[in-house]
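*Target chain*
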Amino acid sequence: MSDQTLDLTPGQTPDQALEQIAANRSFGGQQLRYKHWSATLHCEMNFSIYLPPQAQQGPVPVLYWLSGLTCTDENFVQKAGAQQYAAEHGIAIVCPDTSPRGEAVADDPDGAYDMGLGAGFYINASQQPWAQHYQMYSYIVDELPALINAEFPVDASRISISGHSMGGHGALTIALKNPGRFQSVSAFAPICSPVSCPWGEKVFSHYLGDNRDQWRQHDSVELVKAGAAAMPVLVDQGSADSFLEQQLHTGMLIDAAQESAFPMQIRMQEGYDHSYFFIASFIGEHIAFHARALA
């Protein structure tokens, strides 16, 4: 940890402290949960972090996990079963929330699940009323890592990123847009081309406006086509995923990678759906994939 460690005393106001709100022993390490005031999102945010037992001896590499629509920082922590593999490989896992939160934060006026709260899409909104709070790209790329690097025993030079669905989109685009920042990226059932699906078209039109050139800057297929630098990529997609054809468009990513000679490992997993049963089935392989890149 840095010499400027924040006071973790519970009860302080958000702008004064990183406050621990949960702690559980898991596979010899610690599953922790914190809240803090985000200057980027202008609201209080929660995140979870798993510290493997190796973190007691010194800094460990870190994997950022980005969750999907309707999720919080807790879904992956409670359902994926990742802690045992993180402990085995000595990797910390950071799980941020999926959007800004709070009464003042704009939400879908119809209360739909695919825009607003729980649907930050890991981009920086430029349109009102979204722009004031929905700056998830900057939060994930800049603010949260700076906090994690300063306050926890992680090695800031060994970072990877992964995610599911909307979070898979976030992981892929953030990694592709920041060459050299991440040692590897993986995704479960990612939204591969948000510019080409109903989820993406709805959110991008509201968050970013009508300029589709801006949309393409947050689309994995378009980034690969535009010549994004190659890096280790693993994608798993279930063949029984009900969102595959209309929303996810995995085939478009396969085609773009082939056309651009971008070496990706994209696996179709027979009979698996979009749920955490799918993620739990292959999360051990994903963490091992990242462990090799982070070694």
Q: What stands out?
A: The chain has ten helices and nine strands.
